[in-house]
Write a structure and sequence with these properties.
Blueprint (H helix, E strand, L loop, with lengths): L2 H17 L10 H15 L6 H6 L4 H4 L3 E5 L5 E5 L6 E3 L11 E3 L1 H11 L10 E5 L6 E2 L14 E2 L4 E5 L20 E3 L7 E5 L2
Parallel strand pairs: 1-3
Antiparallel strand pairs: 1-2, 3-4, 4-5, 5-8, 6-7, 8-10, 9-10
Helix pairs in contact: 1-2, 1-5
Length: 202
């Protein structure tokens, strides 16, 4: 998953988790500012694919079909493209990122994401799922706040995957090194409160 996309997801999910999906200005911090900049670029390139179809491609139809579809406006506020009725929220691909990265998350994943963006501890024992069946392109495997690759932040690339977040116990037994085999399940951000399982799929 691209770091730019996760920043946008986390800015969005923090708002969704805390304010019942009402459009609100994004939090005034570097992560939210990066999300706004990426959204502005995405708006400039809009039209290459229907955003609702793009968002729905992130998860199985049984989930995406009834999920809320949201997109960030250039000013950081949230725009609901379609109301949902199953507790899931999906976002379309951002043309500002290097590869396809639409995603769908459940309500527990939104709580985890809100904690990440707020530099707070995620709620204990609250397991959440994030689908990225179109794939994600790249992110640091060691630094939850990295925005670009460096010599020591273990930049990795992962194809289509599911993220399981919110449980440290669930991670036991999975590869957690800085340079994992991204074709097998592995732990991203090991040793931090935001460690989660990356599970590649087909």
């Amino acid at each position: 998953m691209t770091m730019a996309k996760i920043q946008l997801l986390l800015a969005t999910s923090a708002i969704l988790a805390c304010d019942g999906c009402k459009p609100q200005p994004a939090a005034p911090n570097a992560v939210a500012n990066a999300a706004t900049a990426n959204t502005a670029a995405a708006d400039t390139n809009a039209g290459s694919r229907d955003p609702i179809a793009s968002a729905m491609s992130a998860a199985p139809g049984s989930i995406a079909g009834d999920a809320m579809i949201v997109m960030a406006n250039a000013d950081g506020s949230m725009k609901t493209l379609r109301e949902g009725k199953n507790g899931w929220t999906c976002m379309p691909d951002s043309p500002a990122t290097p590869g396809p990265d639409p995603m769908c998350m459940d309500a527990n994943a939104a709580k985890w994401a809100a904690a990440w963006i707020g530099h707070k501890s995620p709620p204990a024992g609250t397991v959440g799922l994030i689908y990225m069946l179109e794939g994600g392109t790249d992110a640091s495997n060691t630094d939850p706040y990295a925005t670009s690759p460096t010599a020591d932040n273990a930049w990795v690339k992962t194809g289509p995957h599911i993220m399981v977040v919110g449980s440290q116990d669930l991670l036991k037994g999975y590869s957690s090194g800085a340079k994992p085999d991204t074709k097998s399940p592995y732990v991203m951000w090991s040793g931090t409160p935001y460690a989660h399982l990356m599970a590649p799929v087909g």
